[in-house]
Design a protein that fits this description.
Largest sheet: 20 strands, antiparallel
Number of strands: 20
Strand content: over 45%
CATH class of the largest domain: Alpha Beta
Number of helices: 3
Amino acid sequence: MRRIPTALILTVCAYGWWTGPASAPVLASEAASEPAPSGAHGVMTSYYDSGGVEWERRYQNGRQDGVTRKYFENGKLQGESTFADGRLDGVFKTYFESGGLESELSYRDDHLEGPSRFYYESGALKREVAFIGGAREGAARDFYEDGQVKAEWTYSKDLLNGESKLYYESGTLRALAVFVSGKRHGPLRMFQPDGRLLEVQEFEEGKRVK
């Protein structure tokens, strides 16, 4: 019996797009979670124990309104979001401590809406996925740092649907699976770097049957 490389098994089983991980940014949740003092108006600032600014929030009539900023303890910008009448509205950006853009996510009326993109610290695009009403929808892709496509898959109402593909850095297909309503269904094909078929596993409604 042919032995499947452990690295490939771990990649296929644990790699994010196979399980459809939640993509809601933690920093955005933190930005929206601070309760506003009654009737708050203007800029309110909170600080690290070291004395540096941690958060800058703007309020109008007791609701967050305008640009909210989060800083690293060294003073560099970590995140920036826009609120309208207490709701996230606009592009939410996060940054690496080095200063480079880490992610940009579009919000409308407190829900993820439109394209969201994630980056390597080098500035290269790492992932792109779209949202409608807070749910992932349509084609999504991951990239290697050199720009080569790493994976591509499709969402329907926040669930994986259709073919999902994983590639080696060379561009050769590494794995091919089919999802129906978020569950693997049908053959999962895994390939060697030279393109030869390595293994086929069969699934029905998320359970391996062969």
